[in-house]
Design a protein that fits this description.
The chain contains eight helices and 17 strands. By secondary structure, it is of the alpha/beta class. Helix 1 runs parallel beside helix 6 and helix 5 packs antiparallel against helix 7. It binds one RNA strand of 73 nucleotides through strand 3, strand 13, strand 17 and helix 8.
Length: 315
RNA sequence: CGCGGGGUAGAGCAGUUGGCAGCUCGCCAGGCCCAUAACCUGGAGGUCGUGGGUUCAAGUCCCACCCCCGCAA
């Protein structure tokens, strides 16, 4: 008989894992819990989270609790537990902290898929943090949830290399896929007792915070390498930007450039042979390859220069 | 109707109080040079997002609509 699972998830990162469980005959996803529809996009239209869409496509019952902490949420999940004898919860990028008494409901606890090699990068921006910090590798951790964030015992880890030109968008997708490939076997082996959970080495823990757009303002006194990593790490979210003539310009693609050609006394955009450079800290420089002025679409540096023969940055 | 910027040549931009539609790059042809991302000469390429309106005259003023984007979430 199939193991009964309740899946908690909201974002795109959840989809491959949910899909893997839905397709696997060893599991029956008896219900899905996801966040409520939220205002989204330029017109603030109420939009369902991706996981809800997938739940509807597969005709799986789903719940969108306004507040997971409320009594009602607990009562409903308790009812599901009594009716279906759920074996485990699987939590992938749900987006809210689940209260302990809900975590205690399923017979064998709650399994989480996290996009980093725990205990490194506990928290909400694990993918961005790994790239921004210049990590050579990342991976996924399949773990048990406990009371503290990303703190529980580990069931399995898979490591992958971070490519030197990789953005968070790409790594995010690869990790979501890797998690989905790893999850089913690990989950089955945990439930049939073949895996013994291993505690994390808490002394090695590092943490990362939720990012906002303001975090993406580029500090040009940092070195070109640091900024290059930040640009890749914050692509596509939250994006990196700088101010120019009082307007915001997103910087979406850069490459470490040649310092020696540039005037080191200014920290401005500088045009050299149809190419756009900016002087950074530590005697380094970046070439801007792609940017997006406020209100405009993404364009190459060459296109930007065509309409801005003289450009300067306010920093 | 959350706030805001924008749609003008293949690309990026300018266009002043309405008065013959421009700039940089690219493209085509030719020239110069040991050579070039350089330079010179000539050329092609625009129903100014769409539909109405005002006017002798609208890219420009008025109304409606379509599309793109930044903030926010």
């Amino acid at each position: 008989m199939a193991y009964k699972i309740v899946f908690f998830g909201t974002a795109d990162f959840s989809l491959p894992s949910l899909d893997a469980l839905l397709k696997d005959s060893r599991f029956e996803v008896v219900a899905i819990v996801t966040k409520p529809d939220a205002p989204f996009g330029r017109h603030q239209t109420l939009t369902p989270p991706p996981v809800k869409v997938m739940a509807q496509e597969h005709n799986v019952p789903f719940f969108q609790f306004e507040k997971i902490k409320m009594e009602e949420s607990y009562e409903i999940l308790k009812q599901v537990q009594n009716d279906r004898m759920v074996d485990a919860y699987v939590v992938v990028s749900y987006g809210k902290i689940i209260p302990q008494r809900i975590l205690d409901l399923p017979k064998h606890g709650c399994i989480n898929v996290h996009g980093s090699l725990l205990p490194r990068w506990r928290g909400a921006s694990c993918v961005q943090s790994a790239i921004a910090a210049g990590d050579k590798t990342s991976g996924v951790t399949i773990m048990l949830l406990d009371a503290e964030m990303d703190h529980g015992d580990i069931l399995a880890q898979k490591e992958i290399e971070i490519n030197s030109d990789e953005t968070s968008g790409k790594l995010h997708d690869r990790l979501a896929q890797l998690g989905a490939e790893t999850l089913p076997d690990v989950l089955a082996n945990y439930l049939n007792g073949k895996i013994t959970p291993q505690p994390q080495d808490h002394s090695q823990a590092t943490y990362c915070k939720i990012l906002s757009r303001d975090d993406g303002k580029i500090d040009w006194t940092k070195s070109a390498d640091e900024i290059d990593r930040l640009v890749r790490a914050y692509n596509p979210w939250p994006g990196t930007w700088t101010e120019c003539d009082g307007k915001r310009i997103k910087i979406s693609k850069v490459e470490t450039g040649n310092w020696k050609e540039l005037d080191d006394k200014r920290v401005n955009f500088q045009i050299v042979h149809d190419r756009l450079f900016i002087v950074c800290g530590s005697k380094s420089a970046l070439e801007i390859l792609e940017l997006q002025p406020e209100g405009k679409r993404v364009m190459t540096a060459k296109e930007y220069i065509a309409g801005h023969p003289q450009v300067t940055s306010d920093n």
